[in-house]
Design a protein that fits this description.
With 434 residues, the chain is an alpha/beta fold. Helices cover 29% and strands 26% of the residues. The structure holds uridine-diphosphate-N-acetylglucosamine. The site of uridine-diphosphate-N-acetylglucosamine (UD1) has 24 residues, from helix 1, helix 5 and helix 6.
C-alpha cells in the first residue's frame, strides 16, 4: 500500500493547476449511457474513481477510451451496445456514485440492475430518493439478492419533490427525465455546480432542461439524444484544498484553472480568518497568509453553503488559528474521522455529536497517521505540511480516488512530500468513500 512521507515547514510558493471535477466527470460519464452516439469529455481528471467508472461502463458493453496523455485528458465513450446493464457489487462497493447509472439505464433501455451500495465510512448514505423518484416516473423497482432492479417500458414525466437535497439523486433523476415521456418537474434540487455541469452536457446532447443549478428544474422529455463534446468544470474541492494549502503554510500561491465563483463560501471563511484571497484572472486565485490567523465558526451546508467536502481540510487550518472554532457537520452523520488523527498530531479538538470544537493555535508534530476517506486524507496532508518532522501517511489510496497527482502538484510549489510504494496498487479492494 502506498504511503506519503511529508516533511513540514515549507511555505508553498508558485502556481498550482486544478484538474477537472471528479464529481462532474462521474455523472457526465453516466450520461453517455443515454445515447448510441459517441460522447467526448474533456478535462477528465486522472483519478481512481474515474477508472472505476470506466470499468463499470465497459462491464456493461460500452466502449470507453480514457485518453490520458492526449490533449486535455479527453475521454471518448460509446454506449451503442449495452449487452449487460448491470452495475455489479464488486464495482458498486468501491464507489457509491455507481448508482448514477440507474436513471440513465432505465431511461434508455428500460431496465437496470444495480447492486445496493451498502454502508459507508461517513454514514448511512441511502439511495431511497433515487428509487422514489424513478417509481414516480413509472418504473417498477424490485430488490433481490442485494440488487435493485428497475424496469419501465418508457418512463413518464412526473412532479418530484426531494425530501432531502441530494446531489447524485438530482443528477440521476435529471438523466432519467431527459428521455421520459412528457414534462418532469424536479423540486428541492441540489444546486451544486456539478448538477449544472451535467445538465450542460445533456443539453448539448439534445435534452430540454430549464433551471439546472437552481432548486427547481423543469425537463421536457425527448425521444432520443445524440453525441456531444463537453469540457468538465474545474474541481472546486481540489481548488479549495490548494487555497487552504497556501494559507496553512503561510505561502503565496496562485491556484490556476479554477472557477472563483464556485468557491464563495470558502473564500468568505478564509477572509474572516485573515487570509488574503484575490481573484487575479477569471480562472486564477492568489492566496497569501501570514499568521496569526483568527478562529471562525463554520457549518457545512448544501451549495452555495460551505461544502462538506471541505470540512476536514478547513479543520486542519482551524488548528493553526488563534482561538476557538466550532465546526458543524450538517450533511453526513459520521464525517469526523480525521479528528483522531489530527489529535495524534497534537491538535486540540473535541467532538460532541455533529460539532467539533477546535482550540488553537496548536503546534503540530509529525506522527504515523492513516487516511480514512478521501477528504480526511487531504486534511492530514495539510496538517503534515506544517508539522515538525516527518509524517508518514498510510492508505493514500483514498487520496488517489479523487486527487490527481496530488503529491507531484504540491511538490512543484515547494512541499516536501514523496510517495513510497506502488502507485494504484490495491485500490480495487479499497472501501467506499467519496
Ligand atoms: C455527493 C458528492 C460528495 C459530497 C456530497 C454532499 C458525488 C459523486 N459525491 O455525494 O462528494 O460529499 O454530494 O455534497 O457527487 N440522502 C438520502 N437519500 C438519498 C440520497 C441522499 O437520505 O437517496 C442523504 C445522504 O445520506 C446525505 C445527504 O442526503 O445525508 C446528502 O447526500 P448526497 O447529496 O446524496 O451525497 P452524494 O450525492 O452521495
Amino acid at each position: 500500500m502506498d504511503k506519503f512521507v511529508i516533511r513540514g515547514g515549507n511555505p508553498l510558493v508558485g502556481t498550482i493547476r486544478v484538474s477537472g471535477a471528479k464529481n462532474s466527470a462521474l455523472p457526465c460519464m453516466a450520461a453517455a449511457l443515454l445515447t448510441e452516439d459517441e460522447v467526448i469529455l474533456e478535462n477528465i481528471p486522472q483519478v481512481h474513481d474515474i477508472e472505476t467508472e470506466r470499468k463499470l461502463l465497459v462491464s456493461m458493453g460500452a466502449d470507453v477510451n480514457l485518453g490520458y496523455g492526449r490533449a486535455q485528458h479527453r475521454t471518448t465513450i460509446c454506449c451503442k451496445n449495452l449487452s449487460d446493464p448491470v452495475a455489479k457489487y464488486e464495482i458498486v462497493k468501491t464507489m457509491r456514485a455507481s448508482s448514477l447509472v440507474l436513471g440513465p439505464l432505465v431511461a434508455r433501455i428500460g431496465m437496470a440492475r444495480v447492486a445496493l451500495p451498502g454502508g459507508c465510512a461517513i454514514g448511512g448514505r441511502p439511495i431511497d430518493l433515487h428509487i422514489k423518484g424513478l417509481e414516480k416516473m413509472g418504473a417498477t423497482i424490485t430488490q433481490e439478492h442485494g440488487y435493485l432492479e428497475a424496469r419501465a417500458t418508457r418512463l413518464k414525466g412526473a412532479h418530484i419533490f426531494f425530501d432531502k437535497i441530494t446531489v447524485t439523486g438530482t443528477e440521476d433523476l435529471l438523466m432519467a427525465a431527459v428521455l421520459a415521456d412528457g414534462e418532469t418537474l424536479l423540486e428541492n434540487c441540489a444546486r451544486e455546480p456539478e448538477v449544472a455541469d451535467t445538465a450542460a452536457l445533456l443539453t448539448s446532447m439534445g435534452a430540454k432542461i430549464e433551471g439546472a443549478g437552481t432548486s427547481t428544474i423543469r425537463v421536457q422529455g425527448v425521444t432520443s439524444l445524440h453525441g456531444a463534446r463537453h469540457r468538465i468544470n474545474p474541481d472546486r474541492i481540489e481548488a479549495g484544498t490548494f487555497l487552504i494549502a497556501g494559507a496553512i503554510t503561510q505561502g503565496d500561491l496562485i491556484v490556476d484553472n479554477c472557477n472563483p465563483a464556485h468557491l464563495g463560501a470558502l473564500i468568505d471563511k478564509l477572509t474572516q480568518m485573515g487570509v488574503s484571497v484575490e481573484t487575479i484572472a477569471p480562472d486564477q486565485l492568489r492566496v497569501r497568509a501570514s499568521h496569526p490567523l483568527y478562529a471562525v465558526d463554520m457549518s457545512t451546508e448544501e451549495y452555495p453553503g460551505f461544502p462538506t467536502d471541505m470540512q476536514a481540510q478547513f479543520m486542519a487550518l482551524a488548528t493553526q488559528a488563534d482561538g476557538v472554532s466550532q465546526i458543524k457537520e450538517n450533511i453526513f452523520e459520521n464525517r469526523f474521522m480525521h479528528v483522531q488523527e489530527l489529535v495524534r498530531m497534537g491538535a486540540n479538538i473535541k467532538v460532541d455529536g455533529r460539532v467539533a470544537t477546535v482550540r488553537g493555535k496548536t503546534t503540530l508534530s509529525s506522527a504515523a497517521v492513516m487516511c480514512s476517506d478521501l477528504r480526511a486524507s487531504a486534511s492530514l496532508v495539510l496538517a503534515a505540511m506544517v508539522a515538525d518532522g516527518e509524517t508518514i501517511l498510510d492508505r493514500v489510496y483514498h487520496m488517489d480516488r479523487g486527487y490527481e497527482r496530488f503529491e507531484e502538484k504540491l511538490r512543484s510549489v515547494g512541499a516536501q512530500i514523496r510517495r513510497m510504494g506502488n502507485v494504484f496498487a490495491t485500490k480495487d479492494t479499497a472501501p467506499e468513500n467519496i
